[in-house]
DNA sequence: GTGAAAGCGCTAACAT
DNA sequence: ATGTTAGCGCTTTCAC
């Protein structure tokens, strides 16, 4: 037990005593239960205010079997994408009276499962961003994490809802844009190989290739940072392509920077596109044509899916078979700015 | 009570029964209490693993009177500064087995106090980032938030520890750098008036002025975004100053962008400095001279202060008078790059 | 070294 | 409409 050297923390019983009612009544009043005499309710509320009584959430949590908290598991809190997802979840959840507990695995993927389970135990559900986790591991983990909402991936194990960004469509839109401009030789400056969203872009390009056999698309292995983009310039120039699709805005900006130093004019000699539409994209010289990814909305939607799960009749216990296999897809939207134009001489 | 339509959640009693010991023993084993016979301990652990038993944190929290969770209150999760503080706290706290609960007031300062109190009740302590909260409100709130650590501000009410960035020193370093370069007419393109860190920069400049009466420093009211910086160009040029200190890197970059469009050469005609040293700062043209703010470290330090408070003999109850009035200050460090140089003709 | 039992602060049957 | 009471799942005295 807890024979604590307690100071003066006000508990529900203090209020009950002072207001001359039972604990249950105080509890009812505090929870807005209408079945309390208005007069008494008022008196109890006054007493609570006077005593500065604030219900202890832990006690409540234990009694109600829920915490009004949702966990958000991310591989890296330094990554703008996950920061935005987190923000989206946090704000949307707050509107429903829920809070967010963070679980940052700091890129240590071996800890991811443990972290996620831990978070799940402390919360009513988990929003999982685990792009690198193997499908097998995810499948094994999924049941114990229910209710769970997946971001940017799906799983068959449990029919957990997913919120995903259609990176494949985004890159296709970009490729189509370049094609329509008259480019016939394109190059994709790829992201990290381990990146799931890079895989999605690659798949999108494969689709595009099939539909447009006349267009050449080279894939140039690269990374995800500004510097990676900067360092890709030589390969880009060697490729002979006139339409360059960078993995994201950051690499596009790095590329732009190097190209500028070399005196290569964009978009006159080379068209360049980014991906994400980060705030800076509009301020590069020239302003960057890119695909806007509504990532905060992804977080908001993830919360909504979670809320539906939490409110579903199935209840929130582990293992149960569940109905909600919903996948919500967000499509990036093409944002045309100054970094793309018709190719210099060639086609068109 | 809770006559729940419970499914098969494994509790401590299940383990106790199956292992043929008492609840207390299982608890002791799970908590690494050495006073348990090694043989029994092993058996209990095996049973726990077999049953996939995981202690319920809520029950633990209630019994122990603590949650192993710290709340981080921020005015805006979209602001890179707070994102970094959050990240610093989260990672440092994780190393000590603590988790982070987010409270994002979404700039609604009227909710800030309530949010902070709410967070405090759910957690063992609170890291408060509330730059706009009035000193009076903070003073009133502080006692009920204990243990609390303040970021970028102090209060006298409770002697809560603070972790602050010395923006005043940073801007003075920048001014001194320009002065040493030979500039005698400086201009500070200010941030938002409501910004506390802007006030700190202003105060730093006042100090600098006193120490260096021969240097002229104009203050040009402005904002905090890239666009604000862009739009400040006219005023900057009108000022006649040759050394320009922007509120932060973003506004510096906006200014740079406009200056570039006008064909004004930096640093040949005008020297420009930023503040923060965001990752992009090194990639502008020319690369930005700025003051690096170790903001993630601020978050980490905030956690350490919190940990000290949590471990202090005073215990973590409200109202108690406490010893720790420690303020930890981080000084920005000057980062000289290409955007500053000796003035064209004038002095030197 | 181990178990029995008393809580931690609250909610929710159930009875009145 | 209100009170009584039995828990929620765990920790921790206290006695053995």
In short:
The structure is a homodimer of 348-residue chains. Chain A has 13 helices and 12 strands. With 348 residues, chain A is of the alpha/beta class.
Oligomer: homodimer
CATH level-two architecture of the largest domain in chain A? 3-Layer(aba) Sandwich
Chain pair sharing the greatest interface: A-B, 53 and 54 residues
Question: What structural class is derived from the secondary structure elements of chain A?
Answer: alpha/beta
Q: Which spans of chain A have pLDDT < 50 for at least 5 consecutive residues?
A: 1-6, 315-323
The third-level CATH topology of the largest domain in chain A is Rossmann fold
How is the largest sheet of chain A built, in terms of strand order? Answer: 2-1-3-4-5-11
Number of helices of chain A: 13
Describe this structure in words.
2 copies of one chain form a homodimer. Chain A is an alpha/beta fold and 348 residues long. Chain A folds into 3 domains: 12-64, 434 Repressor (Amino-terminal Domain); 69-160 and 296-327, Response regulator (Rossmann fold, 3-Layer(aba) Sandwich); 167-293 and 334-347, Rossmann fold. Helix content of chain A is 44%, strand content 15%. Chain A contains 13 helices and 12 strands. Chain A has a 6-stranded parallel beta sheet with strand order 2-1-3-4-5-11, with helices on both faces. The structure holds a DNA duplex (16 and 16 nucleotides).
